[in-house]
Design brief:
Number of helices: 11
Radius of gyration: 22 Å
Number of strands: 20
Low-confidence stretches: 1-28
Structural class: alpha+beta
Mean pLDDT: 87
């Protein structure tokens, strides 16, 4: 079964047919371990966004991999991981059964561990922080977006895959994990975090009275499966309570489900393109508004260097359509879309299937989005967000004319 965003349903049927003609070994001769490797290869062959496969012959890679000794499931995982590594692209990756289940639970709105969203730093094998989850042990310890995680429990992260690093930071409540963290050019520092169960309540909603006028403040921490409904319910409630404008806070929101970002954009836009997707054939597809906006009241959006992926889709859609003004600092710059694919033994693949562009065809990947009004991120606690100490929030109010 393919768990993929609805606009990525294409299959290269001709290539599948030719596989049986060109395969060097009959399908009936494959062991279960070889079948697992072959299914991973075939999934990437059909879906991966770069049809050059990092300028290599993907069929040769298949044949070379299947000629290896693959006596057990662990050897199959090793073979798949090595095959994927040849793509030199960190977001396409193998997810072992426990990792796959964990990722699915995460996007459903629950997380256990220290509360870090992580990625691979461009041009290196280093693990970097995309954003800490609000209120998590990592956030309370002062870990910041773009910090480098040098070691996890004394193991260099250059020796770990992205998902292995994530698994090592998770664990039973009350247990410790040691992280060696480097911020910019400063010396690395050790941070001891106590794992907690983290409830990902994606929306914080408050109706503020500013200079006698009602402003709906909405902070979105992650694009989980329930984010769009929760946000929409609060927009409607604040509208009924007389809100004359809204502040949508996407700071340190590392993304999540792309579809959730699209649904939320439609809550603010009645018409216009939300995002363009570009697949490996260069085909451009658009996802558009559907006339379902919940309000036409003025909107300001807060972003920073921790706003990534689906946050950038949403912010770019509303900025380019003139629906909102962006306040803060340039966003993270993750413009590649992954879909999840099941493998036969309960493991899975996260495969980069396309890149996205804003309605004005701005390529976000590694570039980010520049706000309409650049205001440095204030050094404040989460509790001080949207208060008089929050200079970005004050700038948003000014943009709304309050």
């Amino acid at each position: 079964m393919v768990r993929a965003s609805f606009w990525f349903g294409w299959i290269l049927s001709l290539q599948v047919a030719l596989f049986w003609l060109w395969g060097t070994t009959p399908a009936v001769a494959f062991t279960s371990e070889q079948q697992l490797v072959l299914q991973a290869w075939r999934t990437i062959d059909r879906a991966y966004y770069d049809d050059t496969f990092n300028h290599q012959n993907w069929w040769v890679t298949r044949d070379r991999t299947l000629k290896q000794q693959i006596p057990n499931e662990e050897a199959a995982y090793t073979a798949i991981t090595k095959m994927i590594a040849s793509l030199d692209e960190p977001f396409t990756r193998l997810l072992r059964p426990e990792q796959y289940r964990s990722l699915q639970v995460n996007t459903a709105g629950e997380l256990s561990g220290v509360g870090l969203q992580i990625g691979v730093k461009a041009g290196s094998q280093q693990i970097e922080v995309i954003a800490p989850i609000a209120g998590s042990p990592a956030a309370q310890a002062g870990i910041l977006p773009h910090d480098t995680i040098v070691e996890i429990d004394a193991i260099p992260t250059t020796e770990l895959t992205l998902d292995t690093a994530a698994v090592r930071m998770r664990g039973a409540m009350g247990t410790n994990v040691s992280l060696l963290i480097q911020t910019a050019d400063k010396s690395p520092r050790e941070v001891i975090l106590i794992r907690q169960k983290i409830e990902l309540n994606p929306v914080t909603a408050e109706l503020h009275t500013e200079n006698g006028r009602k402003i709906g403040y909405l902070r979105l921490s992650q694009f989980s499966a329930k984010a769009a409904k929760e946000l929409g319910d609060n927009i409607t409630k604040f509208k009924q309570q007389g809100a004359i404008g809204y502040v949508l806070d996407l700071r340190n929101n590392p993304g999540g489900l792309v579809q959730a970002g699209v649904e939320i954009a439609r809550q603010w836009l009645n018409e216009g393109t939300i995002v363009y997707t570009v697949d490996r054939r260069g085909a451009i597809d658009s996802i558009d508004a559907t006339g379902t906006a919940l309000t036409d009241a003025p909107l300001a959006i807060l972003v920073n260097e921790g706003s990534a992926s689906a946050s950038e889709i949403l912010a770019g859609a509303l900025q380019d359509n003139g629906r909102a003004k962006l306040i803060g600092t340039k966003t993270f710059g993750k413009g590649l879309i992954q879909s999840l694919f099941d493998l036969p033994n309960g493991s899975g693949l996260a495969v980069t299937v396309a890149k996205y562009e804003t309605p004005n065809h701005h390529d976000i990947h590694k570039l980010g989005i520049t706000p309409d009004r650049v205001v440095p991120t204030p050094e404040i606690s989460l509790e001080s967000a949207a208060t008089a100490a929050d200079t970005q929030y004050l700038a948003a109010l000014k943009e709304l004319g309050v």
